[in-house]
Amino acid sequence: MPPPSHRHELYTVAQVRALDRRAIEVLGVLGFELMRRAAWAALSSLRRHWPQARRIAVHCGPGNNGGDGFLLATLAREAGLHVDVLALGEASSGDAGAARQAWRDAGGSVRLWQIGDALPEADVHVDALYGTGLRRAPEPPVAALIEAINASGVPVLALDVPSGLDADTGHVPGAAIRAAVTASFIAAKRGLHTGRAAAFVGALELDALGLPESLWQGEPPDAQLLTATQLPPRARDAHKGTNGHVLAIGGEHGMGGAIRLCGEAALRAGAGLVSVATRTEHIFAMNAARPELMAHGVDGPQALEPLLARASVLALGPGLGQSAWSHALWLTALDSGKPLVLDADGLNLLAREPRRFTQPAVLTPHPGEAARLLGGTVADVEADRCAAARLLAGRYDAVVVLKGSGSLIADPDGRLDVCPWGNPGMATGGMGDLLTGVIAALLAQGCDAWQAAYLGTGLHARAGDRAARQGERGLLASDLLAPLRALGNGLDDD
């Protein structure tokens, strides 16, 4: 297991390779010894997850990941398992070559993979095809093997990284192993926690291979996983004025629900006062359903200005639209200089009229909005979400929450955090409106932009996981409001 202080640290592939070299060159741990430790860690993981397994098939590539596989095969055979080994080539080099020879010396045989071959009968497949070095789609013969393994119906243990998954970005450019468990070594790879990784990694385990704390000294991580952080308790003499006043602006014709969700989330996240500036047609329904929201019909900038004067933080964009009314409110709100959270059509208008923010600002784009803000495509954003989040933060001088699986929080100085919570049930309308309200409420209660984004993203995702206990399919955004309140008060029974 990794030292406790490093369990939430995420590293790039280049950084992990530097750690490998340091272990060998500075700490004096031989490369073959690291490979042997990785094989032991992987075998331990296999026995924990599949204690009844009697037959395994190990699929070995040409590099060190394949070397891990050959040594795992040797150890598993010594432990009494029936082991079949398939390899991509006739030879391996360096430490991987020594590992391959160790398997042969132990009496093992190697079968070369050919397209059209049947897979051996197995209770578990072990993926040791490619490690962290693969950045492109696997070649057709390897892709055929990957697809055959995925189609076998047999669970897969991936060594270090599921083959075909980019360990830096979470991008999947071609065929990739869908693992039930991934046993990763030495340091956590950034790309295993965002993008499409969740669909391929399965249960993720990390083993530091017994390396000492000194290994990580002088190698700061590229990113961090969010940790579950509790908000401080309210002062006993608190009143509504001490907890901030959020003004939620949006709700064009037919989109009143978005701004209501945003406002209600701000209330549930602890804002002392929440006003809503919206189309007059939404006022009756909003007052009837949630009278705690101070709803105002505004027909233009003049009606908005007195509301701006009373607010401490703005939540701008849910249901805003892109009409002349929308644009006028958007421009007036931005020019007020108030701290704000910008989402939805607030971001789409920003893409049309870019500006750098001088006030505290949090932008919360999904990949489509991020692509418009960057002048690229969704594919560009998803190919390297970490780079996209950092580029957005620098371009607009704001904290950015790039939403999606493994949501990212970035600031203009390059800091990057990754959210480990959330679930597919949250891929439904209104979830982003809630997040906007939560972050705005935290800004109103005294958090700076980074703190509000960090805490708000975590609270929102954890509330989604709580709400999904009754099932992911059919999850509604409003289902998060009760667990959001509980988590904000430290009432976490996880």
Q: What would a concise description of this structure say?
A:
Helices cover 39% and strands 16% of the residues.
Description of the molecule:
The chain is 39% helix and 16% strand. The strands form two sheets. Strands 8-1-10-19-18-17-16-15-14-11-12-13 form a twelve-stranded mixed sheet, with helices on both faces. A seven-stranded parallel sheet has the order 4-3-2-5-6-7-9, covered by helices on one side. The protein has two domains: 4-223, YjeF N-terminal domain (Rossmann fold); 240-488, 3-Layer(aba) Sandwich (UDP-N-acetylmuramoyl-L-alanine:D-glutamate ligase), CATH 3.40.1190. The protein starts with 8 loop residues before the first strand and ends in a 6-residue tail after the last helix. It contains 17 helices and 19 strands. The protein is α/β, with parallel strands linked by helices and 494 residues long. Helix 3 packs parallel to helix 4, helix 9 (301-310) packs parallel to helix 10 (324-335) and helix 11 (345-352) packs parallel to helix 12. Keywords: ATP-binding, Isomerase, Lyase, Metal-binding, Multifunctional enzyme, NAD, NADP, Nucleotide-binding, Potassium. It catalyses: (6S)-NADPHX + ADP = AMP + phosphate + NADPH + H(+); (6S)-NADHX + ADP = AMP + phosphate + NADH + H(+); (6R)-NADHX = (6S)-NADHX; (6R)-NADPHX = (6S)-NADPHX. Belongs to the NnrD/CARKD family. In the C-terminal section; belongs to the NnrD/CARKD family. Residues 223-491 form the YjeF C-terminal domain.
